[in-house]
Amino acid sequence: MIEETIISKAIVESYLKDVLDSIESDVIIAGAGPSGLCAGYYLAKHKYKTVLFERGLKLGGGMPGGGIMFNKIVVQDEGKATLDEFGITYHQYEPGYFVADSLETTACLTEKALKAGLKIFNLVSVEDVMIREGCVTGVVINWSAVEMARLHIDPISFKSKVVIDATGHPSEIVHIVEKKSGGKLLTPSGRIEGEKSMWAEVAERLSLENTKEVYPNLYVCGMAANAVFGGPRMGPIFGGMLLSGKQVAELVMKKV
Ligand code: 48F
């Protein structure tokens, strides 16, 4: 015999336990694209208590869509070791260009990150940050459904030592901090420099150079790094995104 109320209690109690466990952590990541998942994997693997909030229902950000909905991604030489780390299948198309299935890549990143201990909350949006004495000290979240329905419902806060903006092209968290700090970002102009037009080679290199702290205790990785520090976009080549996720994890581990 199956009792429906037990199913309900099991889900509600287990979920709320996860929420309570996550209210204070070492690192909060906004966005479960390739860079956010990769960062979360490396941090969790090294036993950092890491919580990731993803606005959408599904994980992977721009990864599952591949290039124009052709569900393949390209990774260059530098990113090959990361594909191996996650056990992703690939083949060499031409010397230096490796092709992987975007769905398998998304699944492998997700599985490894979760198994390493990353706590992921999907359907949750980061809508603000907490700032104390000029340092980011956590995020303010709400249900994505509340955000989408434009309901006037107050959010709640989660505290962490470090926050990572992995929200991709919109670099939403840095935009919030730029607005609320009056333009005191650690960029050349103190403001968001803005994403430049497609140039894959330069974008891949700069996405690593631009992966860094952009405000005390706020780091930026993935496409958000180029959008904030003025690098170009790169299209469906993903080595830079994976390496940027790994690099931001290493930078955070040096600090925390
Ligand atoms: O855009 P996305 O995949 O970010 P990424 O890791 O990778 C970029 C590539 O996909 C591609 C590219 C390079 O090849 O140009 O675009 O930098 O994933 C960003 C995720 O963040 C979520 C969003 O739903 C997506 O899944 N997101 C955005 N804003 C918020 C958010 C927010 N405020 N709160 C929570 N999640």
TrEMBL record:
One of its GO terms (biological process) is thiamine diphosphate biosynthetic process. Fe cation binds at D154, H169. Its EC number is 2.4.2.59. Its cofactor is Fe(2+). NAD(+) binds at S35, E54, R55, G62, V126, H152, I153, D154, M223. Pathway: Cofactor biosynthesis; thiamine diphosphate biosynthesis. Keywords: Iron, Metal-binding, NAD, Thiamine biosynthesis, Transferase. InterPro entries: FAD/NAD-bd_sf, Thi4_fam, Thi4_prok. GO terms for molecular function: iron ion binding; pentosyltransferase activity. It comes from the Bacteria. The keyword Iron applies. It catalyses: hydrogen sulfide + glycine + NAD(+) = ADP-5-ethyl-4-methylthiazole-2-carboxylate + nicotinamide + 3 H2O + H(+). Glycine binds at R233. Gene3D superfamilies: FAD/NAD(P)-binding domain. Homooctamer; tetramer of dimers. Belongs to the THI4 family. PANTHER family: THIAMINE THIAZOLE SYNTHASE. Involved in the biosynthesis of the thiazole moiety of thiamine. Catalyzes the conversion of NAD and glycine to adenosine diphosphate 5-(2-hydroxyethyl)-4-methylthiazole-2-carboxylate (ADT), an adenylated thiazole intermediate, using free sulfide as a source of sulfur. This is Thiamine thiazole synthase. It comes from candidate division TA06 bacterium DG_78. The gene is thi4.
